[in-house]
Write a structure and sequence with these properties.
2 copies of one chain form a homodimer. Chain A contains 9 helices and 14 strands. The first copy, chain A, is of the alpha+beta class and about 375 residues long. In chain A, the strands form 3 sheets. A 7-stranded mixed beta sheet of chain A has the order 9-11-8-12-10-13-14. A 5-stranded mixed beta sheet of chain A has the order 1-2-7-5-6, with helices on one face. A two-stranded antiparallel ribbon of chain A has the order 3-4. In chain A, strand 5 (about 115-125), helix 4 and strand 6 (about 150-160) form a beta-alpha-beta unit. In chain A, helix 3 runs parallel beside helix 4 and helix 6 packs antiparallel against helix 9 (about 310-320). The longest helix of chain A has 18 residues, at about 130-150. At the A-B interface, helix 1, strand 2, strand 5, helix 4 and strand 6 of A face helix 1, strand 2, strand 5, helix 4 and strand 6 of B.
Chain lengths: ~375, ~375
């Protein structure tokens, strides 16, 4: 059982609260790295802003989207994205680290409107790793790349001594072309936009948690890890002017919507009742005190689209196997900038903050 | 002291010989990953061929160059390369993991004739890492990127629990444009070509070894880690038809030349006397039983150029700060394909094989 939630670390002050994303001790200026710096939530954002953005200052990075958009001399645009994968365990219901690595980069490209074309894959292997394990992972990457229609064109392999890396780490970088006329990005949400979600939330995080074992009860969750580029193309066919697309991975839907609300300087109001959660995931979250809105997904996306296009986009999503359960979950509103609210089943409205601290480390 | 050479691992059969690249037990079909699979030598090549190439089958990868060359719809070409960096220790005389990560990707691009433009950087941090250490590394990356004229446009950060990763691992992916007309690659060496080397060999590997401590004597070596794109541009100005460029990193000059001899189906004859080695590196190699031709470099390149252009290219190299000690070290010959020979100081000729097994793990 390796989740931080059940393993408070008083030495670092990282004490995730039992029922949500709160954090007992301010963590922004810690002098050591804590697990929460990799959560995808507030600590990650602070680290990026304070350490990386200030050093690697450039417009593509500063935009804070899932992929950098780069201008080519011919007027074309490239999207480039990178991701490290350290999921533990390596295999889980519905997927494995290889499928995750390929889909992660494919999805970060397509939510920028890019057509994913090329991936690189860089491996850190721990001395003693079974070769058959590596072969299974590589075969899974091959299958996922085929499914997504991308080629793995460059790679690297390093081996670290036993005990100095955990089995296999995989970094993938994705490169794709952005077709002319597509302008999608986290800063383009407009008041009035419909907020769409492609399906049930929390499947990936709970599947990985279940695979770790050590719980007193079974979780019947299967990871949703899948390449979303086909779904995205179907959505663009229904509406050329999609405003925002993003895949809610680490930090879940709640953190992703907070990021977008900040980037676009809008507020977002969600309707709790409309957000699909599979019963097994809902039950496990209930037992563990997790909020499914903060659990990672690896085959879902949220979209902000002009209200008049929402019905067509929803129809297109529902016609695609990965969007069958798509639904409208909320609306973009004028200010207060950066706030995400949730209208609960009881009719009250509560603020949905960004994840701070860490709920489930090593989830992707 | 973590080098494999002084730590035979009988459980894996990986017993590097004491005086060179030989390996007592055949390793090609081992069922577990050993350190030698990350050496950059024969075991790495076997793993790439048997596991990765067979799964990710495509022409860009199969070419086996330092970067993939990809065609854009406008007729332009992109070079893409990726590298993981796990060097231990993180800081060493002349550099650190951050400078290494930036220069590694810049160099893999420019030896394909590309002009490096964009990098991505993906970090795995170990829980408990000092934030100041991370900031020093990031600042070094910033400085190296500035020196090379590239932008770091996308990134990712993951945190692994204490004990499941070693401090900091950094993966960089580089993207650059290949100017029209440049055709450089490992398969383009031609009989008669001059083999040029930009300076002394073995500095990086011995500097890292020295920084590990645990030796009974001091090694006064400083890593040569540097971005080579300026030097490469100077060489292209002197001769538009450079045949092969490559940076001899893991596995050293010996392994790099073996790769090229195989790709081009030629043989290469080196002149031992002409290969520069700094006295401190030569002395340490002598004491440790290492051959400097197998020690990693991170700021050197080898080039195969038409014999009539060699004097101009050498002049251009020597006029650049990173090529001051450039020299002609050998000649490309017709067959036997894939063989590298060395004319020794005694006037005899011996075969210089590819590194097999592992001399110094975690060198980059």
């Amino acid at each position: 059982m390796r989740q931080a939630k059940l393993r408070p670390s008083p030495r670092t002050g990282n004490v995730p609260g039992p029922t949500g994303p709160s954090c007992a001790v301010p963590l922004a200026h810690q002098d050591r790295i804590v697990l929460g710096h990799g959560s995808g939530g507030r600590l990650t954002h602070d680290l990026i802003r304070q350490v990386f953005l200030s050093a690697f200052d450039n417009p593509a990075l500063a935009r804070g989207d899932d992929a950098a958009c780069l201008d080519l001399p011919d007027g074309g645009r490239l999207a480039v994205t990178t991701d490290g994968h350290i999921v533990s365990p390596l295999f889980f219901p519905g997927g494995d680290i290889g499928r995750l690595a390929v889909c992660g980069s494919v999805n970060d490209l397509c939510v920028m409107g890019a057509v994913p074309q090329w991936l690189t894959a860089s491996f850190i292997l721990e001395e003693g790793l079974e070769r058959e394990t590596l072969e299974r992972i590589v075969d899974s990457m091959r299958a996922a790349a085929e499914e997504a229609g991308v080629s793995i064109v460059a790679g690297d392999t390093k081996v670290a001594e036993r005990g100095s890396a955990d089995g296999v780490f995989i970094h993938t970088t994705g490169v794709g072309r952005i077709p002319a006329g597509r302008e999608v990005g986290g800063a383009r949400a407009r008041p009035g936009d419909a907020v769409l979600l492609s399906g049930a939330v929390g499947d990936h995080g709970m599947a990985v948690l279940a695979a770790r074992g050590g719980l007193d009860f079974a979780i019947d969750a299967v990871s949703d890890v899948a390449p979303l580029n086909g779904l995205v193309e179907a959505m663009f066919t229904a509406c050329a002017d999609l405003h925002v697309l993003r895949d809610p991975t680490r930090g879940g839907v709640a953190t992703t919507l907070n990021e977008i609300a900040r980037q676009s300087a809008v507020s977002i109001l969600l309707d709790e009742e409309s957000i699909p959660v599979h019963p097994a995931v809902a039950a496990a979250c209930e037992l563990l005190g997790f909020d499914p809105l903060y659990i990672a997904n690896e085959g879902k996306l949220v979209a902000m689209v002009p209200p008049e296009s929402a019905p067509d986009v929803l129809d297109a999503m529902r016609a695609h196997p990965l969007g069958r359960d798509a639904c409208r979950i909320g609306v973009v509103q004028q200010g207060p900038a950066g706030r995400v609210g949730l209208r609960t089943r009881l009719g009250t409205t509560r603020v949905v903050d960004m994840l701070s601290g860490e709920m489930l480390p090593r989830i992707c």
